[in-house]
């Protein structure tokens, strides 16, 4: 079982996102507040809208109410972001994978906060990623296997202060039992050799970013 959570960040390439939803075929589509505007434009109906609803025009909200979409409203003055609330909700569902979209954009504070939210999903034992037209972002603490394209850029960044025992397969610049620290982020801009990439670590948490220009 799979869920997609869509937030109010940048969702620019409509064809990309329509294809993403079609290919992933999620059982649950959760909107964090203004993410509902993106789905309306894409012609995709969510299962749940959650948040303080301050970013949704009244006409959009009425449209979803008429379709009997579940709407969970919170007060504007709250400790959590709307995306946090959506993540907390999605973790209560019977799923194994979560894809987060609309999480990146010009607001660096929101972007970083959303990347940090991958940690709660990792702790829950869920496969999770942030996806947009140019990036696929993962957080790992043991091992991960990814499908990449030949020549695609892959970067490794320590999420914890130190990551030990980093070993890679399928990358141009291979690592074996390597150590990476936040003050020496040398894992930037590696290159995928073929279709499959495998990364394992012994200790710590690693951020993995597949990027296309």
Automatic annotation (TrEMBL):
One GO BP on record is: thiamine metabolic process
| Top-level taxonomic group | Bacteria
Q: Which GO terms describe its molecular function?
A: ATP binding; kinase activity; thiamine binding; thiamine diphosphokinase activity
Q: Which residues form the Thiamin pyrophosphokinase thiamin-binding domain?
A: 148-207
One family from Pfam that matches here is TPK_catalytic
InterPro entries noted in UniProt: Thi_PPkinase (IPR006282), Thiamin_PyroPKinase_B1-bd (IPR007373), TPK (IPR053149), TPK_B1-bd_sf (IPR036371), TPK_catalytic (IPR007371), TPK_catalytic_sf (IPR036759)
**EC number in record:** 2.7.6.2
Q: Which UniProt keywords apply?
A: ATP-binding, Kinase, Nucleotide-binding, Transferase
Entry keyword annotation includes Kinase: yes
List, alphabetically, the PANTHER family matched: THIAMINE PYROPHOSPHOKINASE (PTHR41299)
Query: What is the name attached to this protein's record?
Result: Thiamine diphosphokinase
Please name the source species: Irregularibacter muris
């Amino acid at each position: 079982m799979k869920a997609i959570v869509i937030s109010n960040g940048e969702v620019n390439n409509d064809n990309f996102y329509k294809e993403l939803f079609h290919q992933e075929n999620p059982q649950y589509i959760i909107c964090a507040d203004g993410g509902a505007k993106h789905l309306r434009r894409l012609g995709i109906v969510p299962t749940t809208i959650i948040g303080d609803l301050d970013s949704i025009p009244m006409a959009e909200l009425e449209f979803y109410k008429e379709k009997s979409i579940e709407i969970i409203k919170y007060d504007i003055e709250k400790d959590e972001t709307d995306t946090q609330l959506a993540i907390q909700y999605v973790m209560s569902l019977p799923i194994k994978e979560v894809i987060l979209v609309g999480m990146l954009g010009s607001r660096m504070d929101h972007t970083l906060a959303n990347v940090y939210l991958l940690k709660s999903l990792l702790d829950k034992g869920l496969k999770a990623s942030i996806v947009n037209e140019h990036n696929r972002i993962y957080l790992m603490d043991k091992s991960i296997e990814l499908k990449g394209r030949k020549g695609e850029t892959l970067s490794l960044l320590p999420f914890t202060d130190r990551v030990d025992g980093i070993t890679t397969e399928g990358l141009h610049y291979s690592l074996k039992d390597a150590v990476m620290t936040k003050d020496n982020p040398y894992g930037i801009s590696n290159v995928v050799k073929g279709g499959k990439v495998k990364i394992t670590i012994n200790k710590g948490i690693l951020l993995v970013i597949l990027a296309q220009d």
